Amino acid sequence: MLEVLKRSLEICPIVQRGEYSYFIHPITDGVPLVEPNLLRDVACALFKALDLKDVNKIVVSEAMGIHIGTVLSLMTDIPYTIVRKREYKLPGEVIIGQTTGYSKGTLYLNSVYEGDRIAFIDDVISTGGTIRALLPAIESTGAEVADLCFVINRGNPDIGRAYKSLVTIDVDKDGVHVLDSYF
Ligand SMILES: O=P(O)(O)OC[C@H]1O[C@H](OP(=O)(O)OP(=O)(O)O)[C@H](O)[C@@H]1O
Ligand SMILES: Nc1nc2[nH]cnc2c(=O)[nH]1
């Protein structure tokens, strides 16, 4: 398990965004091509790694949490909501400031309510800025984040609580180096 993910990371291209070495990978970018066997590898590992007991909703973030949220939802029959970069002004919408290693923006959380037990998944964690902003926003609704798992962990940031990652990587100008994996 995770051999397909690890191999795909070791061969993925890097581009410089200023000082930031940005890896380009099917799970985090949708390019190069998203191969079905990679999606299956990731979906099965997420399903095995996450504690989904009594979880009634999956939360993912736009854009690249969406394909992994879709496959996990299909496997588990648990519905999911997407934290969007667009405002809807629906009742209960939570507005969240997002800062990553290379961008700043605003996110909008909908469809999470008091009493929900949430599994949060995302394609990558890097500075942890996004999830540090998202966790209190989800909890402000009265929901509980039961478990959270990132497919790729680059940087291993402290987010104030335990979290899971399928693979931990280091990135430099030469490429991606896989340091650790959950399975
Ligand atoms: O730990 P952080 O430094 O906050 O980085 C992680 C965030 O970066 C990526 O999203 P991005 O904002 O690039 O949006 P995208 O999914 O639309 O590419 C990823 O999906 C996370 O949400
Ligand atoms: N694709 C991609 N997404 C990221 N999100 C945070 N860092 C990165 C990165 O280096 N590559």
Explain briefly what this protein structure is.
The chain is built from 5 helices and 10 strands.
- CATH architecture label name: 3-Layer(aba) Sandwich
| Span between termini | 6 Å
Major sheet characteristics: 6 strands, mixed
Structural domains: how many: 1
The portion of residues assigned to helices is 25-40%
What ligands does this structure carry? 1-O-pyrophosphono-5-O-phosphono-alpha-D-ribofuranose, guanine
Shape: globular
Strand content: 35-45%
CATH fold descriptor: Rossmann fold
Report Rg: 16 Å
Beta-strand segment tally: 10
Number of DSSP helices?
5
Low-confidence stretches: none
Order of helices and strands: HEEHHEHEEEEHEEE
Which sequence of strands runs across the widest sheet?
4-3-7-8-9-10
CATH C-level class is: Alpha Beta
- Determine the structural class based on helices, strands and strand pairing: alpha/beta
List the helices and strands and how they pair.
Blueprint (H helix, E strand, L loop, with lengths): L2 H8 L3 E4 L2 E4 L2 H4 L6 H14 L7 E5 L4 H11 L3 E4 L10 E6 L4 E6 L7 E9 L3 H11 L4 E11 L9 E9 L2 E7 L2
Parallel strand pairs: 3-4, 3-7, 7-8, 8-9
Antiparallel strand pairs: 1-2, 5-6, 9-10
Helix pairs in contact: 1-3, 3-4
Can you characterise this structure?
Residues 74-156 form the Phosphoribosyltransferase domain. Catalyzes a salvage reaction resulting in the formation of IMP that is energically less costly than de novo synthesis. InterPro entries: HGPRTase-like (IPR026597), PRTase-like (IPR029057), PRTase_dom (IPR000836), Pur/Pyrimidine_PRTase (IPR050118). Its main location: cytoplasm. It is found in: Cytoplasm. This protein has 183 residues and is of the alpha/beta class. The protein has one domain (3-181): Rossmann fold (3-Layer(aba) Sandwich). The protein contains five helices and ten strands, in the order αββααβαββββαβββ. The chain has helices at residues 3-10, 26-29, 36-49, 66-76, 129-139, and strands at residues 14-17, 20-23, 57-61, 80-83, 94-99, 104-109, 117-125, 144-154, 164-172, 175-181. The strands form three sheets. The protein has a six-stranded mixed sheet, sandwiched between helices. It has a two-stranded antiparallel sheet with strand order 1-2. Strands 5-6 form a two-stranded antiparallel sheet. Strand 1 and strand 2 form a beta hairpin. Helix 1 crosses helix 3 and helix 3 crosses helix 4 (66-76). The longest helix is centred in the first third of the chain and has 14 residues, at 36-49. The model has no long low-confidence stretch (mean pLDDT 96). The structure holds 1-O-pyrophosphono-5-O-phosphono-alpha-D-ribofuranose and guanine. Guanine binds at residues 22-25, 28-29, 100-101, 124, 126, 154, 171.
